[in-house]
């Protein structure tokens, strides 16, 4: 028997995919509702191979979470605490420098920097943070601050979002990560993250950031109380903004981890849901170049499989992930370059080490640029 799809409803969608016709909201729902995971994956792999062939990207990066003190206290977050609580921390510049220096012999070329909304910092802390990182690691790119932090920074600075971004850019900001959108539903926001910026503001900030010349990523937090309709609407809102600005680089589905949160009764996401979110993102987000399988959240093993379900990027080495591990993630806290390359190669893809902007640095373990492998901070 030679059947491509176990679910006949997927055939019509595949016809559209092959012709490059944009999928509708209804198509998105069919994809989420079907039990034919491999059918969805096959379509996503078709699109993935058209864009990226057999290449799979990763970045040599380091995460810095400068504070876990946050006044928003979203219900799904196990990372944030109040000022004065046990374990509350804020890193001043000497601590930031110490953490960068601890890895200075490694060829880190991206710093991923995010933190909570601290109630008593001033704007200079943030420009100082970027300047410190650029001084210690002049060749690395800085991907920092979510849309939620930018909203807060523009209030601290008293400047518009555009002006705030221009000041941060001058201090060293190269790109922004995609966190903070969660799922763009007012119903879910009211229940889980009422103090966080709403969907309209998140999109408005992203639009202003893109127009100021800073690319960003986008994410979706799934596997809590959101409906399938809300997931599809979230993807469509991102696709519409991407049509306007072209400023999104990658989309990253984030699998909810409930341990140590107010939602600890909720079960973990399963492999079916994790792979579907990757594949459906690849199919719905026809104007996004990159779909990341974030191994921290879905485990190294499933991230390898995800490369055949539409993902083309495994994010990075990370070195000390905190946000998901506080919520019970069982993945490693960081991986080596060899780990990343082995994961990709063993899945049948070609490992391509990239920088923040997807410039190729190494292909299958061989340097392809004059990128200096060591001594970034020297
Ligand atoms: O904004 C918080 C989410 C995000 C939990 O842009 C949780 O390259 C799961 O945005 N379970 C931060 N998720 C992570 C993030 C990210 C990660 C990797 C790459 C990029 C990128 C961005 O994590 C938060 C929030 O949406 N989050 N708590 C939790 N318990
Ligand atoms: Fe604060 Fe972000 Fe955690 Fe929400 S998800 S409580 S904004 S650190």
Describe what you observe in this structure.
With 378 residues, the chain is an alpha/beta fold. The protein has one domain (56-373): Alpha-Beta Barrel (TIM Barrel). The chain is 41% helix and 13% strand. The chain has helices at 9-19, 25-33, 37-52, 93-101, 123-136, 147-157, 161-171, 186-192, 199-211, 228-245, 271-284, 295-298, 300-306, 337-346, and strands at 55-59, 61-64, 110-113, 141-144, 216-222, 248-255, 290-291, 313-316, 350-354, 360-363, 366-367. The strands form 3 sheets. Strands 8-1-9-10-11 form a 5-stranded mixed sheet. A 3-stranded parallel sheet has the order 2-3-4, covered by helices on one side. Helix 3 (37-52) crosses helix 11, helix 6 crosses helix 9 and helix 9 (199-211) runs parallel beside helix 10 (228-245). The longest helix is centred in the middle third of the chain and has 18 residues, at 228-245. It is globular. The N and C termini lie far apart (62 Å). The model has no long low-confidence stretch (mean pLDDT 95). Residues 70, 72-74, 77, 79-80, 116-117, 148, 196 line the site of iron/sulfur cluster. It catalyses: 3-[(1-carboxyvinyl)-oxy]benzoate + S-adenosyl-L-methionine + H2O = 6-amino-6-deoxyfutalosine + hydrogencarbonate + L-methionine + H(+). One of its GO terms (molecular function) is 4 iron, 4 sulfur cluster binding. Its EC number is 2.5.1.120.
